[in-house]
Specification:
The structure is a single chain. It is built from 21 helices and no strands. By secondary structure, it is mainly alpha-helical.
Length: 340
């Protein structure tokens, strides 16, 4: 401990350390009792001057001794960590997977080994440099390893395509947070049913009859009410509906979320300016930065309207939901006779 104190006071790199001093450390480490090696490991875990040979010996020691070194030592390089993955116990592999700022090379090696516990630790390590392909492999592993699902659902680099894949395997609580983050809903079930119907009609050599407009409208209304009753109807659902080219679902969801009448919502969609539609979206919590691309897609689905007259009011600054709702009602009233 005295020698380490001297090294702390006059730090150097591990390459500059005297070979004699390195040999002294190695001899002491081999002869020391468990508690002394553990204390040695904790002291050397952050030391930039620590002898590389000694650090690697401690990294392969009992897990209680190795843990501080594996977690924090700046001396350990990728080759050292890869050696630990091959030579040491499962507990050592878990500590490597938890190491902050783990490189993509070591993360890929953990993925290749595919042991459940290190994979779970890697999924929870948000600082690890996991490639997009590596994250996709983790999501695929989560099909069989339930422990991966919760950390992956919260992973900051999870993208929407991976989230949709993961969504079908996770529980209700995680689904709610993911649905809010990625605008995912149980419409996936509708898609599965629709695909099955299409397949059945293809087998028969015919096409399914399109639902009548009134039937489709009623189906949309019931689905929105069902989502509301399940606590899954959120502003992100409106964006999801438009992305999936389901304008009817968008209308019914806007009615329920905003407490509007269908006449008011239709007035927003047929107005000569996009102002009313912006107020309706702002009233239910859609961010003004999202509105321009949303407006573009709505115009594509709606055959043009709302019109392009007026000013881009969403550029003036954010509105509170209450202010937006008041502005909407002041502009279109009850919606019976669309303004413009």
């Amino acid at each position: 401990m005295g020698v380490m104190a001297l090294c702390d006071q006059h730090p150097a790199t591990s390459q500059d350390l005297s070979p004699v001093l390195t040999d002294i450390f190695l001899v002491l480490a081999r002869q020391a009792e468990h508690d002394i090696r553990k204390a040695l490991s904790e002291r050397l875990a952050t030391a930039s001057w620590a002898p590389s040979a000694l650090v690697n010996i401690l990294a392969l020691d009992e897990i209680e001794i190795a843990r501080p070194i594996l977690a924090r030592s700046p001396i350990l390089k990728d080759e050292d960590l890869l050696a630990v993955l091959v030579k040491a116990s499962l507990e050592h592999q878990i500590e490597v997977a938890r190491r902050p700022n783990l490189s993509a090379r070591v993360a890929d090696a953990i993925l290749d080994q595919a042991h459940p516990a290190p994979l779970t630790a890697l999924a929870g390590n948000t600082t690890a440099e996991i490639s997009a392909e590596g994250l996709r492999r983790l999501v695929e592993h989560s099909r069989r390893l339930a422990a991966l699902r919760a950390p992956l659902a919260r992973h900051p680099r999870l993208d929407e395509s991976m989230a949709r894949q993961l969504y079908s395997w996770i529980g209700t609580a995680l689904r709610e947070s993911m649905a809010e983050r990625f605008a995912i809903t149980d419409l996936r079930l509708d898609d599965v049913v629709e695909d099955a119907v299409q397949s059945a009609f293809s087998t028969l050599g015919s096409s399914p009859p399109p639902p009548a407009d009134e039937d489709r409208d009623e189906m949309d209304r019931r689905l929105v009410l069902k989502l509301q009753a399940a606590g899954q109807l959120r502003p992100g659902y409106l964006i999801r509906a438009i992305r999936e080219k389901k304008l009817g679902l968008f209308q019914h969801a806007l009615v329920v979320l905003g407490g509007f009448t269908m006449a008011q919502v239709k007035a927003c969609l047929t107005h000569s300016t996009p102002e009313a539609l912006y107020y309706a979206c702002a009233a239910v919590g859609i961010d003004r930065a999202v509105f321009p691309p949303l407006l573009y897609e709505i115009r594509q689905l709606n055959g043009g309207p709302p019109g392009e007259a007026g000013n881009a009011v969403w550029l003036r600054g954010a509105l509170s939901p209450q202010s937006a709702a008041r502005a909407l009602r002041a502009l279109i009233g009850d919606g019976a006779s669309p303004a413009g």
